[in-house]
Amino acid sequence: MDQQTLFEAAILGLLEGVTEFLPVSSTGHILLAGHFLGFESEGKVFEVLIQFGAILAILLVYFRRLWDIAVTLPTSATSRRFVLAILLAFLPAALIGIFAHNIIKTVLFEAPTLICVMLVLGGFVLLWVDRRETTVRYTDVREYPPSLAFKIGLCQCIAFIPGVSRSGATIACSLLMGTDKRSAAEFSFFLAMPTMGGAFTYDLWLNRNALNSDDLTIIAVGFIVAFFAAIVVVRSLLAFVTKHGFAPFAYWRIAVGTVGLIGLYLL
Prior knowledge:
Structural class: mainly alpha
Largest sheet: none
Number of helices: 13
Radius of gyration: 18 Å
Helix content: over 70%
Number of domains: 1
Order of helices and strands: HHHHHHHHHHHHH
Distance between the termini: 26 Å
């Protein structure tokens, strides 16, 4: 293992931490960056496992909220309904992730052109949704009905196509169904916890015998960088989207996807 590989791992970890909770597709950014850097990991394990850094970041930032929910679960109908809503939203992705894992990892993750196209298309969709006038009916994630949460969870499954963005799909779906921008982003945070945690655990189990000490070192570098970058993003994102909406992220997606397509064509 050389310094160049560790540097590339740090760059990819930074991308993971910065983009995981933004509606820009962290997976798409990491796969594209890895493609142009020439960074390879067996079965794309690195790209999935460094998400654990972002998972820990969101758990740390939301620890007080999570603790309050856990403590009040036996006595609060609101807490029980919220937990049920998150579980229902998580269920579709869990089932598809298990049964379509090989196709996702061996086909979709190996298609940089598809990633770029989805970044661009997703950018235009997000821009349209952000500008669309809707009647806001839900402003508190704890008040999202389970039926709404399940529909958001179904939308999250579109993000198995790299370049779509898990948070982008859930946020766009939430906005179209009557949530405000701040709570849409926050629900995406909460839904990320079981979704990313499940993906991390499942991939770690499947590849438990294939990892060596060099792999673990590279993953650790990416994990640490992703952790600190994600903390900064999570602590500032809600205030940002409340003030600016999601249009800046839409333009970013379109720009990255377009540059990526040009790079693929030239190289």
